[in-house]
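Hi support team,

I've been running sequence recovery on a batch of backbones for a student project. Most finish fine, but this one hangs at about 90% for roughly twenty minutes before it completes. I'm not sure whether the input is malformed or the queue is just slow. I've pasted the structure tokens below so you can try to reproduce it. Let me know if you need the job ID as well.

Thanks,
M.K.
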């Protein structure tokens, strides 16, 4: 199974991996998310530090190429293989054995850093690194093997991946790694090694080839002029020991004459033609030099986004800021449409050709992130993004910030101090009097009664003997985590499969929100999450197959929220 490391920072694959981390280490989902972010930063930062010299990069390249991965680590981590415990444990042991090769004397400080704020012990941090290292190294090994990559290409790829997680490499992280300076200093050192290994050498070779071609053309231009002289020197001196020196002198003379001749030709090409009626050459008069057009001013490029911002209120979404051209403005407004919903957009964006152009341009990706957190406003102050608004949970808040750090890169800082979490609804029981029901409409069940009804609904399958069963498991948008309310139903279903020695296909589906390819992977992740749960209850792994169809087979209207919720489902096909 191929993948990109970015999928561990944002996306459905991250949810699946977090589930395995929480299960293995016994930590909360929030702590698992923080641990995964820190761990990716540590592993890639440690690899970048080790590759800060050509010798170090070559050593790491050879280590990755020679490390055996009999089973894809990602398949074990996500439950896509029925590897035995020995194989899985052996992979973690392999990862632990690689820790000193990556981190050296900094291993203890890195384990302490990972444990800080995540509730993980030193031993737990080591186990986590044992899980993560094979995953990261197998990613690089696949890239090296698949693309015939050399050390220079590996160094360049490592720089790109480290840049991706640079937002997680704060000063505490760098201190744990034993790195002096900032994450950009670390990346700068890696870039120099990349140039030393390949980039600069290739450029020098190209330049040398161009110079040699120009010299050859110059010599050819002069050959006619010096042919007789060279021939004469050759005939008279061939038998002498001075012949090689005279021949060399003739070549040098040819080059000098060639330069002079070409220079004269260039001057003649720019001179005013003169009529010559005698055998004596007339003086050549140069034409007046035409005034040169001043070069266009160089466009200034900056890392930040100036004063770009958008603000939600109950009536509209206001967008303001200064951009360099209409194309950038259109990209931003198209992105804001994704988050505005039915609210009108108040366009206060100004176009100024003299404004600096930002090196960031992925506005589609930026507003794709915010489309999952409706009502969150943002305001850039160059490289500082300040957020405000409400989200549903602390997990959502962490996910929003991490996704933005990944997309924007290490040059930006994301501040979510003004983002609040919606308070949980508190049910206040009515006074125990005969008039208590007067406060609750007869047509609406009490909140706790409704929750009980939902629990009961999720607990049962009407007929488990059917060939096709809708398990009635629905997921949050973009998530593959099974809600606790479905545990009782899945436990009952697992018991039925074990008692009757049955198996079949677990089929995942999504709604049509977002990218179709990502939805296909998400549906697979959801199906595997259910498969993993049933296996954990004792169902034979060989009897279950997980399949995803993405958004291809909706059963309800994707035009409504209720319909989309129904389409995020799991079905079981017995066999």
């Amino acid at each position: 199974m191929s993948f990109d490391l970015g999928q561990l920072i944002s996306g459905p694959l991250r949810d699946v991996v977090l589930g395995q981390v929480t299960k293995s280490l016994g930590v909360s989902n929030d702590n698992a998310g923080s641990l995964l972010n820190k761990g990716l930063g540590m592993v890639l930062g440690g690899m970048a530090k080790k590759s800060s010299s050509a010798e170090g990069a070559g050593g790491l390249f050879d280590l990755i190429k020679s490390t055996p991965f009999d089973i894809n680590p990602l398949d074990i981590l996500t439950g896509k293989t029925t590897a035995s415990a020995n194989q899985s444990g052996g992979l973690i042991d392999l990862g632990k054995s690689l820790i000193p090769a990556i981190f050296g004397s900094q291993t203890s400080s890195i384990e302490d850093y990972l444990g800080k704020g995540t509730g993980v012990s030193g031993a737990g941090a080591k186990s986590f690194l044992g899980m993560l290292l094979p995953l990261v190294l197998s990613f690089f090994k696949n890239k090296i093997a698949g693309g015939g990559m050399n050390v220079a290409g590996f160094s360049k790829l490592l720089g790109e991946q480290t840049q991706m997680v640079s937002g997680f490499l704060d000063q505490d992280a760098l201190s744990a790694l034993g790195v002096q300076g900032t994450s950009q200093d670390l990346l700068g050192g890696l870039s120099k090694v990349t140039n030393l290994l390949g980039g600069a050498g290739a450029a020098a070779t190209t330049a040398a080839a161009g110079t040699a071609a120009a010299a050859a053309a110059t010599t050819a231009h002069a050959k006619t002029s010096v042919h007789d002289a060279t021939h004469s020197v050759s005939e008279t001196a061939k038998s002498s020991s001075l012949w090689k020196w005279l021949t060399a002198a003739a070549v040098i003379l040819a080059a000098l004459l060639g330069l002079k001749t070409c220079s004269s030709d260039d001057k003649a090409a720019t001179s005013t033609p003169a009529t010559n009626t005698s055998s004596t050459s007339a003086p050549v008069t140069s034409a007046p030099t035409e005034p040169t057009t001043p070069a266009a001013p160089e466009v200034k490029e900056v890392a930040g986004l100036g004063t770009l911002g958008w603000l939600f209120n109950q009536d509209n979404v206001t967008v303001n800021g200064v951009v360099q051209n209409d194309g950038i403005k259109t990209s931003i407004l198209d992105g804001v449409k994704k988050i505005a919903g039915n609210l009108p957009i108040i366009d206060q964006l100004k176009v100024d050709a003299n404004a600096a152009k930002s090196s960031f341009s992925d506005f589609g990706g930026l507003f794709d992130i915010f489309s999952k957190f409706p009502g969150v406003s943002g305001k850039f102050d160059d490289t500082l993004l300040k957020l405000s608004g409400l989200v549903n949970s602390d997990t959502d808040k962490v996910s929003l910030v991490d996704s933005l750090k990944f997309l924007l890169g290490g040059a930006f800082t994301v501040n979510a101090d003004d983002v609040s979490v919606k308070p949980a609804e508190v049910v206040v029981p009515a006074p125990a009097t005969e008039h208590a029901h007067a406060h609750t409409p007869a047509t609406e069940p009490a909140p706790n009664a409704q929750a009980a009804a939902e629990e009961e609904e999720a607990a049962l399958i009407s007929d488990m003997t059917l060939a096709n069963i809708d398990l009635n498991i629905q997921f949050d948008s973009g998530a593959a985590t099974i809600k606790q309310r479905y545990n009782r139903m899945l436990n009952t279903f697992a018991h039925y499969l074990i008692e009757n020695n049955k198996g079949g296909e677990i089929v995942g589906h999504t709604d049509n929100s977002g990218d179709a390819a990502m939805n296909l992977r998400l549906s697979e992740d959801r199906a595997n999450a259910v498969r993993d749960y049933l296996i954990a209850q004792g169902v034979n792994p060989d009897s279950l197959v997980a399949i995803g169809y993405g958004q291809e087979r909706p059963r309800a209207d994707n035009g409504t929220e209720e319909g989309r919720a129904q389409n995020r489902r799991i079905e079981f096909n017995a066999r």
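--
Follow-up from support: It reproduced on our side and the slowdown came from queue contention, not your input. Residues 82-88, 200-282, 425-446 have pLDDT under 50 and may be disordered. No action needed from you.
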